[in-house]
Amino acid sequence: MSVSSQKHLSNNESNKKNDKALKPLFPKQAECSYVSCYCEENVWKLCQDVSIRIPGELDRCYVVFISNPCRTVPLWKQRAGREEDRLVIWDYHVIFLYSWDSKTCLVYDLDSELPFPTFFHKYVTETFRTDQVLKSDFHRFFRVVPAKQFLQHFASDRRHMKRPDGSWIKPPPPYPAICTSVSTHNLDEYINMDLGTGPGQVFNLTDFVHRFYKVEK
Protein backbone atom coordinates (compact mmCIF):
# COMPACT_ATOMS: atom_id res chain seq x y z
CA MET A 1 0.00 0.00 0.00
CA SER A 2 1.36 3.43 -0.94
CA VAL A 3 1.87 6.20 1.59
CA SER A 4 -0.89 8.24 -0.02
CA SER A 5 -3.27 5.27 0.17
CA GLN A 6 -2.41 4.73 3.82
CA LYS A 7 -3.04 8.40 4.53
CA HIS A 8 -6.37 8.29 2.66
CA LEU A 9 -7.44 5.20 4.60
CA SER A 10 -6.39 6.78 7.87
CA ASN A 11 -8.44 9.88 7.07
CA ASN A 12 -11.46 7.76 6.20
CA GLU A 13 -11.17 5.84 9.45
CA SER A 14 -10.84 9.11 11.36
CA ASN A 15 -13.91 10.51 9.64
CA LYS A 16 -15.89 7.38 10.46
CA LYS A 17 -14.90 7.71 14.10
CA ASN A 18 -15.94 11.35 14.10
CA ASP A 19 -19.23 10.55 12.37
CA LYS A 20 -19.89 7.85 14.93
CA ALA A 21 -19.06 10.15 17.83
CA LEU A 22 -20.92 13.17 16.48
CA LYS A 23 -24.59 12.53 17.11
CA PRO A 24 -27.47 15.01 16.91
CA LEU A 25 -28.14 16.51 20.33
CA PHE A 26 -31.89 16.51 19.82
CA PRO A 27 -33.72 13.39 18.56
CA LYS A 28 -36.38 15.17 16.48
CA GLN A 29 -37.18 18.77 15.70
CA ALA A 30 -40.87 18.17 16.35
CA GLU A 31 -40.06 17.13 19.92
CA CYS A 32 -38.31 20.42 20.75
CA SER A 33 -40.07 23.19 22.61
CA TYR A 34 -41.13 25.79 20.03
CA VAL A 35 -43.28 28.92 20.03
CA SER A 36 -43.35 31.17 16.98
CA CYS A 37 -41.60 34.55 17.40
CA TYR A 38 -39.93 33.56 20.69
CA CYS A 39 -36.64 32.31 19.23
CA GLU A 40 -34.60 33.34 22.27
CA GLU A 41 -36.78 31.20 24.54
CA ASN A 42 -36.83 28.31 22.08
CA VAL A 43 -33.03 28.29 22.17
CA TRP A 44 -33.00 28.64 25.96
CA LYS A 45 -35.11 25.48 26.09
CA LEU A 46 -32.61 23.68 23.83
CA CYS A 47 -29.81 24.65 26.23
CA GLN A 48 -31.86 23.47 29.19
CA ASP A 49 -32.55 20.15 27.48
CA VAL A 50 -28.83 19.53 26.88
CA SER A 51 -27.99 20.50 30.47
CA ILE A 52 -30.45 17.88 31.75
CA ARG A 53 -29.91 14.99 29.32
CA ILE A 54 -26.23 15.29 28.35
CA PRO A 55 -24.62 17.96 30.56
CA GLY A 56 -21.14 16.95 29.46
CA GLU A 57 -21.84 18.41 26.01
CA LEU A 58 -23.01 21.81 27.23
CA ASP A 59 -19.50 23.30 27.07
CA ARG A 60 -19.53 22.65 23.31
CA CYS A 61 -22.78 24.56 22.84
CA TYR A 62 -23.28 28.24 22.03
CA VAL A 63 -26.17 30.64 21.65
CA VAL A 64 -25.93 33.17 18.84
CA PHE A 65 -27.99 36.37 18.68
CA ILE A 66 -28.10 37.91 15.19
CA SER A 67 -28.97 41.58 14.83
CA ASN A 68 -27.52 45.02 14.03
CA PRO A 69 -27.94 48.66 15.19
CA CYS A 70 -30.86 49.15 12.77
CA ARG A 71 -32.58 45.92 13.88
CA THR A 72 -32.85 44.84 10.21
CA VAL A 73 -31.17 41.51 9.47
CA PRO A 74 -32.03 39.61 6.28
CA LEU A 75 -32.04 35.83 6.60
CA TRP A 76 -32.86 33.36 3.86
CA LYS A 77 -34.42 29.89 4.10
CA GLN A 78 -36.69 30.92 6.96
CA ARG A 79 -40.06 29.24 7.33
CA ALA A 80 -41.74 32.63 7.82
CA GLY A 81 -40.54 33.79 4.39
CA ARG A 82 -43.18 34.00 1.68
CA GLU A 83 -41.12 34.20 -1.49
CA GLU A 84 -39.35 31.27 -3.13
CA ASP A 85 -36.05 32.00 -1.38
CA ARG A 86 -37.82 32.34 1.99
CA LEU A 87 -36.22 35.70 2.78
CA VAL A 88 -37.20 37.38 6.05
CA ILE A 89 -35.90 40.60 7.59
CA TRP A 90 -35.96 40.12 11.36
CA ASP A 91 -35.16 42.65 14.06
CA TYR A 92 -33.14 39.83 15.59
CA HIS A 93 -32.86 36.08 15.48
CA VAL A 94 -31.33 33.43 17.74
CA ILE A 95 -29.76 30.09 16.82
CA PHE A 96 -28.04 27.23 18.67
CA LEU A 97 -24.56 25.96 17.77
CA TYR A 98 -22.96 22.66 18.67
CA SER A 99 -19.23 23.06 18.09
CA TRP A 100 -17.96 19.49 18.17
CA ASP A 101 -14.34 20.42 17.46
CA SER A 102 -12.33 23.05 15.58
CA LYS A 103 -13.52 21.66 12.23
CA THR A 104 -17.06 20.47 12.90
CA CYS A 105 -20.02 22.61 13.97
CA LEU A 106 -23.76 22.00 13.70
CA VAL A 107 -26.47 24.67 13.60
CA TYR A 108 -29.90 24.13 15.12
CA ASP A 109 -32.44 26.70 13.91
CA LEU A 110 -36.07 25.88 14.68
CA ASP A 111 -37.25 28.58 12.26
CA SER A 112 -35.22 27.40 9.28
CA GLU A 113 -36.30 25.29 6.32
CA LEU A 114 -32.85 23.69 6.29
CA PRO A 115 -32.31 20.29 7.94
CA PHE A 116 -32.25 20.15 11.74
CA PRO A 117 -29.32 20.25 12.31
CA THR A 118 -27.35 21.66 9.38
CA PHE A 119 -23.57 21.78 9.12
CA PHE A 120 -22.27 25.27 9.86
CA HIS A 121 -20.82 26.09 6.45
CA LYS A 122 -23.99 25.07 4.60
CA TYR A 123 -26.17 27.02 7.03
CA VAL A 124 -24.07 30.18 6.66
CA THR A 125 -24.03 29.90 2.87
CA GLU A 126 -27.78 29.35 2.61
CA THR A 127 -28.99 31.65 5.39
CA PHE A 128 -26.60 34.63 5.48
CA ARG A 129 -25.05 34.50 2.01
CA THR A 130 -22.82 37.60 2.05
CA ASP A 131 -22.78 41.18 3.33
CA GLN A 132 -20.92 42.44 0.26
CA VAL A 133 -24.05 43.08 -1.80
CA LEU A 134 -26.08 44.52 1.09
CA LYS A 135 -26.38 48.09 2.30
CA SER A 136 -24.67 48.64 5.65
CA ASP A 137 -28.04 48.91 7.39
CA PHE A 138 -28.55 45.21 6.63
CA HIS A 139 -25.15 43.87 7.66
CA ARG A 140 -25.44 41.09 10.22
CA PHE A 141 -23.63 40.98 13.56
CA PHE A 142 -23.39 37.99 15.87
CA ARG A 143 -23.29 37.88 19.66
CA VAL A 144 -21.90 34.49 20.64
CA VAL A 145 -22.62 33.37 24.21
CA PRO A 146 -21.64 30.03 25.80
CA ALA A 147 -24.80 28.00 26.43
CA LYS A 148 -23.97 27.50 30.11
CA GLN A 149 -23.64 31.26 30.62
CA PHE A 150 -26.88 31.88 28.73
CA LEU A 151 -28.80 29.45 30.95
CA GLN A 152 -27.47 31.11 34.09
CA HIS A 153 -28.00 34.76 33.18
CA PHE A 154 -30.66 35.23 30.48
CA ALA A 155 -34.04 36.67 31.51
CA SER A 156 -37.09 37.90 29.63
CA ASP A 157 -40.45 39.11 30.89
CA ARG A 158 -41.65 39.18 27.25
CA ARG A 159 -42.40 42.92 27.29
CA HIS A 160 -41.13 43.23 23.71
CA MET A 161 -44.06 41.08 22.55
CA LYS A 162 -46.74 43.32 24.08
CA ARG A 163 -48.61 46.21 22.50
CA PRO A 164 -49.02 49.52 24.36
CA ASP A 165 -52.44 48.34 25.60
CA GLY A 166 -50.86 45.23 27.13
CA SER A 167 -52.22 42.74 24.59
CA TRP A 168 -49.90 40.16 23.03
CA ILE A 169 -48.48 40.65 19.54
CA LYS A 170 -48.00 36.86 19.46
CA PRO A 171 -49.22 34.41 22.13
CA PRO A 172 -46.46 33.67 24.67
CA PRO A 173 -45.08 30.23 25.55
CA PRO A 174 -47.20 28.24 28.03
CA TYR A 175 -44.46 28.07 30.68
CA PRO A 176 -43.51 30.92 33.07
CA ALA A 177 -41.29 33.74 31.84
CA ILE A 178 -37.55 33.04 32.20
CA CYS A 179 -35.91 34.94 35.05
CA THR A 180 -32.90 34.75 37.37
CA SER A 181 -32.30 35.73 40.98
CA VAL A 182 -31.00 39.13 39.84
CA SER A 183 -32.98 39.91 36.67
CA THR A 184 -36.43 39.61 35.16
CA HIS A 185 -35.48 41.10 31.79
CA ASN A 186 -32.12 41.58 30.07
CA LEU A 187 -32.98 40.59 26.49
CA ASP A 188 -31.83 43.94 25.10
CA GLU A 189 -28.29 43.27 26.37
CA TYR A 190 -28.14 40.25 24.06
CA ILE A 191 -29.70 41.95 21.03
CA ASN A 192 -27.39 44.96 21.36
CA MET A 193 -24.41 44.55 19.02
CA ASP A 194 -22.03 47.16 20.47
CA LEU A 195 -18.52 45.75 20.63
CA GLY A 196 -17.06 45.20 24.08
CA THR A 197 -20.37 45.35 25.94
CA GLY A 198 -22.84 42.76 27.16
CA PRO A 199 -22.53 38.98 27.44
CA GLY A 200 -20.34 36.87 25.20
CA GLN A 201 -18.53 38.31 22.21
CA VAL A 202 -19.72 40.20 19.11
CA PHE A 203 -18.48 39.32 15.60
CA ASN A 204 -19.13 40.58 12.09
CA LEU A 205 -20.07 37.94 9.52
CA THR A 206 -16.54 37.21 8.34
CA ASP A 207 -15.11 36.82 11.84
CA PHE A 208 -18.11 34.77 12.94
CA VAL A 209 -17.50 32.30 10.12
CA HIS A 210 -13.80 32.09 10.98
CA ARG A 211 -14.67 31.47 14.63
CA PHE A 212 -16.57 28.26 13.90
CA TYR A 213 -15.40 27.11 10.49
CA LYS A 214 -11.73 26.27 10.01
CA VAL A 215 -10.61 25.65 6.43
CA GLU A 216 -7.88 23.02 6.07
CA LYS A 217 -4.79 24.27 4.22
UniProtKB/TrEMBL annotation:
The reaction(s) this protein catalyses: N-terminal L-glutaminyl-[protein] + H2O = N-terminal L-glutamyl-[protein] + NH4(+)
Function: Mediates the side-chain deamidation of N-terminal glutamine residues to glutamate, an important step in N-end rule pathway of protein degradation. Conversion of the resulting N-terminal glutamine to glutamate renders the protein susceptible to arginylation, polyubiquitination and degradation as specified by the N-end rule. Does not act on substrates with internal or C-terminal glutamine and does not act on non-glutamine residues in any position.
Residues making up the signal peptide according to the UniProt record: none
Enzyme Commission number(s) from the entry: 3.5.1.122
Pfam families, A to Z: Nt_Gln_amidase (PF09764)
Subunit relationships: Monomer.
InterPro entries registered for this protein in UniProt: N_Gln_amidohydro_ab_roll_sf, NTAQ1, Prot_N_Gln_amidohydro_ab_roll
PANTHER family in UniProt: PROTEIN N-TERMINAL GLUTAMINE AMIDOHYDROLASE
Family, as annotated: Belongs to the NTAQ1 family.
A molecular function GO annotation: protein-N-terminal asparagine amidohydrolase activity
Keyword Hydrolase: yes
Record keywords: Hydrolase
Full protein name: Protein N-terminal glutamine amidohydrolase
Coiled-coil intervals: none
UniProt enzyme class: hydrolase
Domain Protein N-terminal glutamine amidohydrolase alpha beta roll residues, every copy: 34-212
Species in which this protein is naturally found: Papilio machaon (Old World swallowtail butterfly)
GO-annotated cellular components: cytosol; nucleus
